[in-house]
Every structure is written in structure tokens, then in C-alpha cells.
Target: Cytochrome b561 domain-containing protein
Amino acid sequence: MSIWFLLNGMLFIWAVWNVAFGLSNHSSYIHILLGFAGFLLFIFNWTRNAVFSTIRNAESRQTRIRLAKMSKRIRPYHRWVGTSALIIIILHGSVITHLYGFNLTNMKILTGFLASINLFILVLSGWYRLLIDPRSRIRKLHIRLGISMFILVVIHSIF
Model:
């Protein structure tokens, strides 16, 4: 099993904890639910990285075949899940801006803004790779953007 499964699981548990705590402390909570929905879609897509990492490192051929078949079934939805995550996160950011204003000195807003820019470029690189240029350079950029997105989401959830 890849370390990414462990990291994704820990981040998921942390996010559920933050959402439960946030729902009990806010009178308006649509922004929390939108953010959590976008997070779930992102983490669903990012778990494919953990699956691929496990495929590369698994010793059992049967395990590699089983994981590859599972990933192949999910692949057609990968771009649409990412695009849906982007749309939901844009809605989340709009509600946050309406409720709290656009104050980049607030670390929560700053990290969310940086994560949303990163997500936009991540989704754009995925569609670019599909429609225009499928070279490995774009794939590596897409993976690096995914890693930076994961880090930004962790930082965003801390603040």
C-alpha cells in the first residue's frame, strides 16, 4: 500500500473533524458544505495517485491487475470529477467572499485562494493533456500540481 493512502486517509479524517466542528459553530454553513464537497471530489481524484503508486510498488501481479482494472473503470470520470470540484470550489470561494470579504491577510482566505488557483491550473492541465498535448512533460506537471494542491489543502485545513 502506498503512503498516499495513509496521507489521504489522515487528511480525510481531519477534514471530517473540521466540518463537524465548523457546522456546530457557524449559523451559516453552506460555505462549509461546499468546501467539503469540493474537497471530497479532489481527494477522490487524488487517490488515483495512491493507486498508481501502489501499482508501481506492489509485488503481487494479481494486486497490480486488480488495481489497474479499478483505475481503468474510474478513468473516464477523472476529468469530470476534477472539473466539478473546480466549479464547487469556485462557489465555495464566492460564498466565502460574500460572507467575509476578500482579505488576503487572513491565512485561511490566502491559502484557499492559492489552492483555487492551483486547482484551476490543475484542471486546465488535465484537459490540455487530453485535447491538445499528451506528452509526459504535461503529465509530470499535472502530478506536481496535484501534490502542491494536496499540500495547500492541508495548510488550508490547518488554518
About this structure: The chain has a mean pLDDT of 92. The CA atoms of residues 51 and 110 lie 31 Å apart. The chain has one domain: 3-158. The first helix runs from residue 3 to 25.
